[in-house]
Amino acid sequence: MSESEHIYDITVIGGGPIGMFTAFYAGMRQLDTLVVESLPELGGQVSTLYPEKIIRDIAGFAEIKGAELITALHKQMTIFPDFAPTIATNEEVTTIAKDADIFTLTTSKGQYKTRSIVVAIGGGSFAPRKLAIDYDQALENQRIFYFVKNVAAFAGKTVAIAGGGDSAIDWALTLENVAKKVYLIHRRDQFRGLESSVQRLQQSRIELMTPYLIDGVTDSAADLTLDLKQVKGDQHVQLDVDALLVNYGFTADSRALRQWGLPLEHRLLKVDTNMETSIPGIYGLGDCITYPGKVKLIAAGFGEAPTAVNAIALNLYPERRQPLHSTQLEH
Ligand SMILES: Cc1cc2nc3c(=O)[nH]c(=O)nc-3n(C[C@H](O)[C@H](O)[C@H](O)COP(=O)(O)OP(=O)(O)OC[C@H]3O[C@@H](n4cnc5c(N)ncnc54)[C@H](O)[C@@H]3O)c2cc1C
C-alpha cells in the first residue's frame, strides 16, 4: 500500500516530549501511529531550547539533563518493534481536512490519512532565527548551517559559530575537538551560558570574536568570508572560514491552531476530560491545550497522553479491552 493510501490509527502532530510519550503509549496499545515533526530532530523545546539544562520535576528522576530525557523517550518510543511509530521529521503539518471519519493531513512534503489526530505542537512550529543579512540561500546546509546533523562533517575545518547562548557555547566546545579552528562570534563581551560552560570556553582554544556582528558573507571557491562589524564601533574584520554555524535561537509560530480552524480558548486548544476537542477525533496534549487547572509542565503532558490514547483506542477498537498495567502485556 502506498503512503497516500495508508490510514494511520493516530497521527501525532509535534514530536516534542509529549508527542514522543504519546507515540510510545499508542504503540503499547498496538495502534498504528505516525509522528510528524517540523524540525529535523525530535524533542521539542527540550532539545531546541535547553538540552543541557538539568530537569528536576520528572517523576522518578531526581535530576535528568534535557538531552538525556529525549534520548530516553526515543528509546521508550521504539521499544515495541511491531508497533514503533512511523516518524516523519523536517515536515510541517499545514492543513487538516476531514472526510467522513478519515482526516487528511497536508504537510510541507505530502499528505497522510489518519483516523484520529493528537495535536501536540507546544508553543508552535519552531524555526531557527536566521542571519539578518542578505546572503545566497544556496549556501544553507553547504557552508551556512543552522543545525548540526553530523559533527564529523566539520572535521579538520575552520568553523565560525555565531551566538552567545548555551547552544552556541556547547557547539563551540564540541567542535573544538574535531575542527581545525573554531571562532565564536558574539555581539556582547559576556556570554549567556552555564557558568561551568563559560569557564570551559575561556580555558579553551576557541578564538572569541566580541563584540562583533556579522555584516556580510561572501562565498568563493576557497572560503566563506565573513565581514564582522564591531558593535558600537566602525572597525571591520574579515574572517575566512570553511563553515558558519548560526545559533541565534528559535522562533515559534503558533498561528497553526487558528489556521486549522480548531476550537480555541485564549489561543490554546480547548479540550474535555478525554483531551478531545469539540471536533470528534481531534485531541490535544501538552503545552498547546487548555482545560481548568492545566499546567504547562512535562509531567502534566505525560499524564494527559494515556487519557487521550485510551479514549482513542476505545473509540477505534471498542471490542478491545481497556488497558491493564504495562507489565501485564506479555500475559
Ligand atoms: C527554558 C525552558 C525551561 C523549561 N524547564 C522545564 C522544566 O524544568 N520542567 C518542565 O516540566 N517543563 C519545563 N519547561 C516546559 C516544557 O519544556 C514544556 O512544557 C514541554 O516542552 C511541552 O512539550 P510539548 O511536547 O507539549 O511541546 P514542545 O516541546 O513545544 O514540542 C512541540 C513540537 O511540535 C512541533 N511542531 C509545531 N508545529 C508543528 C507543525 N505544524 N507540524 C509539525 N510539527 C510541529 C515543534 O517543532 C516542536 O518540536 C521549560 C521550558 C523552557 C522554555
UniProtKB/TrEMBL annotation:
Homodimer. Keywords: FAD, Flavoprotein, NADP, Oxidoreductase. FAD binds at E37, Q45, Y50, V93, F126, D287, T327. Its cofactor is FAD. Belongs to the ferredoxin--NADP reductase type 2 family. HAMAP family: FENR2. This is Ferredoxin--NADP reductase. It is an enzyme of class 1 (oxidoreductase).
